[in-house]
Design a protein that fits this description.
It is a single chain. It is built from 10 helices and 4 strands. The protein is an alpha+beta fold. It folds into 2 domains: 85 residues, Glutaredoxin, CATH 3.40.30.10; 158 residues, Glutathione S-transferase Yfyf (Class Pi), Chain A, domain 2, CATH 1.20.1050.
């Protein structure tokens, strides 16, 4: 019986691997099994394995057979919340006992990653990809009102991060928490897929360098991303299509 985490290379599931590595440092008897697959196409081994576990067929997927009946689920925030609630022994989370304002900050930033920031980034990526396929120039795309709205929202999100981290060491306060873990992927590995220049956001850069220097994060990159360096500079190398499909090593991008 074990807690199993299924991860695809360069997917946001590396946040769940990181969570488990942090808990491994904090809880002596915390154990988990990690299954890593190349990202691949829809008919790849990894995609087929995920689909056999859950109808979503996405990473992360968690199977917890330490409980009865076993629990299988997807969705990063749901998995993170489940692991902390069932196995976390109070670590890396916040409860209302910290006070309404501090608790609200934790909940907000825990939800912000996928609820706002990542959602708009994905829309921007799709728009850029479709425009390129249709041979629409970046200048023409930039004139589209919907595209302008989504781009502006991303700037707003980045400004929110930077303002918060100008007044707080971590997103949820003075201590590292699951809120930091949830928000890191879009500002690190995902920038290798969808470029974002963080030069104008010094507090974000400070925060990224601090949290990715944690031992658990370094181990996560070794286990989940074949030793990919922390992508925390203002500008980062782009991971080409062949790298994302594991046809080439990430080292070709550096």
């Amino acid at each position: 019986m074990s807690l199993k985490i299924y991860h695809l290379h360069f997917a946001q599931s590396d946040r769940i691997v990181w969570l488990c590595e942090e808990l491994s440092d904090l809880i002596p008897n915390f154990k988990y099994d990690l299954h890593v697959y190349p990202r691949g196409m829809p008919d790849s081994e990894g995609k087929k394995a995920l689909l056999s576990l859950h109808p979503s067929g996405t990473a992360p997927t968690m199977v917890d057979s330490t409980v009865s009946p076993p629990v299988t689920m997807t969705e990063s925030q749901a998995i993170l919340t489940y692991i902390l609630s069932i196995h976390g022994q109070g670590h890396l989370t916040r409860t209302p006992s910290v006070g309404p304002l501090a608790y609200a900050q934790y909940l907000y930033w825990l939800s912000f990653a996928n609820g706002s920031f990542q959602a708009f980034l994905n829309a921007n990526l799709v728009a850029d990809t479709l425009a390129a396929q249709a041979q629409i120039s970046p200048e023409t795309l930039a004139q589209n009102p919907t595209y302008q709205h989504f781009q502006q929202r991303t700037k707003n999100h980045l400004s929110q991060y930077d303002s918060r981290l100008a007044e707080s060491r971590y997103l949820a306060g003075d201590d590292f928490s699951a809120a930091d873990i949830m928000n890191t992927y879009a500002l690190t590995v995902f920038r290798g897929i969808y470029p974002m220049d963080l030069t104008e956001y010094p507090n974000v850069l400070r925060w990224l360098k601090e949290i990715t220097s944690r031992k658990a994060y370094v181990r996560t990159m070794e286990k989940a991303e074949d030793g990919l360096p922390a992508m925390v500079d203002a500008k980062v190398p782009q991971l080409g299509f062949e790298v994302l499909l594991s046809m080439k090593s990430w080292t070709t991008a550096f």
